[in-house]
Specification:
The protein is of the alpha/beta class. It is built from 7 helices and 11 strands. The chain has a 7-stranded mixed β-sheet with strand order 5-2-1-6-7-11-10, with helices on both faces. The chain has a two-stranded antiparallel ribbon with strand order 3-4. It has a two-stranded parallel ribbon with strand order 8-9. Strand 3 and strand 4 form a beta hairpin. Helix 1 packs parallel to helix 6 and helix 6 packs antiparallel against helix 7.
Length: 180
Amino acid sequence: MANVLVPLAQGCEEIEAVTVIDILRRAGITVVSAGLDDQPVRASRGVTLVPDTTLDAALQNSFDMIVLPGGQPGSNNLKADPRIITLLKNMALQGKYVAAICAAPSVLATAGLLDGKHATSYPGALDPFPKVMQLPDAVTEDEMLITSRGPGTAMDFALTLVERLEGKAKRQEVEAGLQR
């Protein structure tokens, strides 16, 4: 069974965080939400999220995928955390899945993972990174990198993650239960 890390930064986008965690868990995937510190996370719209653990504790484990929720200032807080940048680089070097939605693909770009790669993001989030080949798609995949546009694409993004980790049949099973 796959093991996924979802770091939760102060100011993250709650729709993206909760949708990804919920959909992956519906698929039977182990998901660990980890706060950058030991405090509850106040998301971008004021919803309080309580992470499963801290990032420092989570880093004691191995993961098959890391998924970064976007939002602001959440994405900037992820970008500013050297543990996140190091983890992203290490996961990519190990050939593991790295995924981000909304403004969070800019974190992947900051880590140098999107140079020469196709990606999508919230409009403007990747503009400072000219080496990224931006696409307008809801979800974009380039090898082990998966990106998505924003809150409105969170369900499609999460279902794509399920398909990559557990296969098309599992995606269809989860999707049927959602009554899409």
